[in-house]
Amino acid sequence: MEQPKNMTDEELIKGIAAKDHTALKELVDRYQFMVLNLSNSIIGNRDDAEEVTQDVFFQVYKSAHQFRGDANLSTWLHRITVNKSLSFLRNNKKHAQTLSTDIEYEDGNKIEFGSSDEYKPDELILKNEQKKLLNRALNSLPDNQRVAFVLHKTRDLQYKEIAKIMKRSVSSVESLIHRAKLNLQKELLDFFEKNND
User: What is the DSSP string of 43-92?
Assistant: First the structure.
């Protein structure tokens, strides 16, 4: 029997645990852009992020009965997405990692850092180079620093929520983000010093 739309997150998980495909479809409709954008921010390749997104929802379908409700559903989805994305990167080391700073919203609009019709061609080239440089710097970060930084900067999550997702203390998350910022500054400074000699 088909459940009514607009179920709460708790109802969705209970429905999925009972193998209700309507609940799964609503969960996917509700959270697919969040999962896809987070995965894309970590992996840097849209096609691979789509593959990971499918894996995330398959994992949710398989393990919904294990969801204890001690965290928000979105926190649990963030955690699964981070783990699946990092696992994908570890298993596909042969692919060059290029972190994506693109964010797509549910209406399909994409915000790309450094792309706007307002810019002149030479400004577009400069912005594109800056984006590549930022991606290179982000790729140089250790996984935990990169994940904490991406969750904070592209998902706009607070330290407390990131701590839940990463299963770390708030102070640990603060430290990871602080070290990520310092490492990014160092990487960017080194690049500019090398290229301005």
Answer: H--HHHHHHHHHHHHHHHHHHGGG--SSS-HHHHHHHHHHHHHHHHHHHT
Task: Name the nearest CA neighbour of 176 among 142, 140, 145, 139.
Answer: 145
Q: What is the pTM of this model?
A: 0.71
Spell out the alpha helix ranges (H) of the chain: 9-17, 21-43, 46-63, 73-91, 121-139, 143-153, 159-166, 170-195
Q: How far apart are CA 12 and CA 27, in angstroms?
A: 7
Q: What is the pLDDT of residues 29-72, one digit of tens each?
A: 999 999 999 998 888 788 999 999 999 999 999 999 888 877 78
CA distance 129 to 91: 29
Beta carbons of 35 and 55 less than 8 angstroms apart: no
Which CATH architecture group holds 1-98?
A: Orthogonal Bundle (1.10)
Of the candidates 87, 187, 192, which has an alpha carbon nearest to the alpha carbon of residue 140?
187
> What would the CATH number be for the domain defined by 114-197?
1.10.10.10
pLDDT tens profile 121-135: 566 565 666 667 777
